[in-house]
Amino acid sequence: xxxxxxxxxxxxxxxxxxxxxxxxxxxxxxxxxxxxxxxxxxxxxxxxxxxxxxxxxxxxxxxxxxxxxxxxxxxxxxxxxxxxxxxxxxxxxxxxxxxxxxxxxxxxxxxxxxxxxxxxxxxxxxxxxxxxxxxxxxxxxxxxxxxxxxxxxxxxxxxxxxxxxxxxxxxxxxxxxxxxxxxxxxxxxxxxxxxxxxxxxxxxxxxxxxxxxxxxxxxxxxxxxxx
Length: 227
Description:
three-stranded antiparallel beta sheet; two-stranded antiparallel ribbon; globular
């Protein structure tokens, strides 16, 4: 037997269509109940429970019980990172779902990727931070520069508090719709939270769409202009 991680086992867990739909639904960052995930997957609650048990055993989910209900969320940002990468691979290979809904354009413009901003506005923010010298990317190593630290702090983000977290400060995440990078990690999460705190943006928990107000979009363009 070959040594090392069992890729096939994890791939099989994600590869089932019903389980894939459940995992995709959890990319909103919101914890969902069994019945909500069953609806997302188009299966019965009993079948959904079986799928969720397998995903939990595989380390892909984090179950929590509150009152009479049991909620499920993605286990961590690593799972979300893999899922977003698979979406990009599928899109790049032409494996797209046949149906497009009224929210499709909005999802491509701005959406939640687990806990950070993705879509066209997400990649614009990433490109702008690189262009302004606030982030440096050397190979796979993404770092916040001294000017980036000042920029983040001036924007109202507590950098010292973020450094206490176990998750990486900055992380590159391949955007499935743009096929370019957007910003993940604790700073990516903090930016999206800050946009909401300032009432620049609001996330739709059902569709993952992030809607920017007129003023929010204007301020976003001012801070993250490109070219």
